[in-house]
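WARN retry 2 of 3 for item q-0093 after timeout on previous attempt; input resubmitted unchanged.
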Amino acid sequence: MPATAKLIPPLTIDLALHASPLFTLLVDFFIFEPKFSKIYVHKAAPAAIVVYSICYASFVEYCATFNGSCEFLVFPAAHGILTPVLLAL
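OK item q-0093 returned
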């Protein structure tokens, strides 16, 4: 296979890697987790989401340095957008 060819996994493998963990975590969350206090919902949870989002975006940018570009982005409109603008989206 040429080095420039894109490797696209079959849908069943893609769903096994992404959808099944999602549904498992959702079931775990809704069945086994205790109810959160209002302070946690309004202060700690948004802070955790922001920290996680920044870490995830940084990891994606780090991985993109190995690929040489951001061609893996799902949204075609995101190609060519500067990193701060992409992070703001």
